[in-house]
Amino acid sequence: MLVDDDTGEVRRIIYSAYHYVKGTETPSDLPMNGSHVRLRVVEPWHQYAPADEPGTRVRLRNYCEAVEDWHADGWRASRAATENPWTMTDRDSWWRRGSLDYSLSERYWESRRAFEDAVPPINVSVPSLTGRPEPTPP
Question: Residue 51: CB partners within 8 Å, gap ≥ 6?
């Protein structure tokens, strides 16, 4: 969350909207609970979608320790993006630039966004486009 230093007002929210590809919204575009955005995890993927229902606060693991474990396990995310959140203001994703994941994820997301008004959603694996839960396949 990007917050105005003088007023404390939330200006923008940056989150993983599709497979580590950045989504950027303002508080008026997302459900908020005071200064906290209400997002839900889209299982089993690595993305978030707006949540209509109130959530619960959960105990979090120490991020600095966790992210180091993820990188040691071969996670192909950018170290700069995961260790310095401010770099995400100028990036399109958390993927390491030049990686296959970076290229495929970002190109797919760009094409979905370019055509979302022209064609109905055909890939149910991207429920964050609608903010609704994914339908169960037959």
Answer: 31, 38, 39, 40
* Structure token digits, residue 69: 């474990």
How far does CA 17 lie from the centroid of its chain? 4
Contact between 61 and 53 under an 8 Å Cβ cutoff? The reply is no
CB 97 within 8 A of CB 78: yes
Cβ atoms of 38 and 32 within 8 Å: the answer is yes
pTM score, two decimals? Answer: 0.66
Which residue in 98, 86, 96, 95 sits closest to 18, CA to CA? Answer: 95
Q: Which residue type does 35 have?
A: S
Residues 6+ apart with CB under 8 A from 71: 77, 79, 82
Q: What is the chain's pLDDT, residue by residue, as a tens digit (138 residues)? A: 889 999 999 999 999 887 788 889 999 999 998 888 899 888 887 789 899 888 887 787 888 888 888 889 888 888 888 888 889 888 888 887 766 655 666 666 666 666 666 655 444 444 444 444 444 444
From 22, 11, 17, select the one nearest 94 (Cα to Cα): 22
- Residue bearing tokens 């770099």: 87
